[in-house]
Amino acid sequence: MIRLSMRGLLLAAALVIVIAGTVLATAPIQPVSSSFLSRGTVTERVHFNTGEVKFQNKASIDHVVQTITFGPGASSGWHSHPGVLMVSVTSGTLKHYFADCSFDTVLTGEAFIESGSHATLVRNDTASPAVVHVSYVVPTGLTNAQLREDRANPGCAGIN
User: Fold this and answer.
1) Domains along the chain?
2) Helix (H/G/I), strand (E/B), else coil: 13
3) Average pLDDT in the 69-84 region?
4) DSSP tag of 146
């Protein structure tokens, strides 16, 4: 009877952890709007080294371009991406937060890169909209929904 109770308790604890992980993932805070502008596939393997820039793929990749507008007070929510993203701020000012709770302020005309499984968050703390153009380089075949994975807040109090 005790063994059965312990098993039930462990199962309940595991279920709570799974549900909590799903609930703690942070979705974007509105108003955020976006539109996908283009998508193309590079099927051949490439290796470029032009001195200042090095680029290499090991399999076919997709290049996806998106415009995202962050309204005043909007946030991307904590997230990560497959592949590599290059983000250019075309208007406004954004804060780009990292999993250690530090951030960079990114102004119009500046850019930043996101890659890997580390959680990041982009937030507009100003009274004006901010617009970015995002260039994704990702494995071929991902849907638009798969270009982003919601992540839990890594422990940064008040940063959502």
Assistant:
1) 28-150 (2.60.120.10)
2) helix
3) 96
4) G
Phi, psi of 15 (to 5 degrees): -65, -40
């279920």: which residue's tokens?
A: 15
Q: How far apart are CA 125 and CA 52, in angstroms?
A: 34
Exposure class string for 10-24: b at 16+ Cβ within 10 A, else e: eeeeeeeeeeeeeee
Which amino acid is residue 77, in one-letter code?
G
pTM: 0.81
Q: State the greatest distance between any 2 C-alpha atoms of the chain, in Å, as a whole number.
A: 69
The pLDDT of residue 31 is 81
Cis peptide before 31 (omega within 30 of 0): yes
Which two structure tokens, joined as six digits, stand for 155?
Answer: 């422990």
Instruction: Give 123-148 pLDDT, tens digit per residue.
Output: 999 999 999 999 999 999 999 999 99
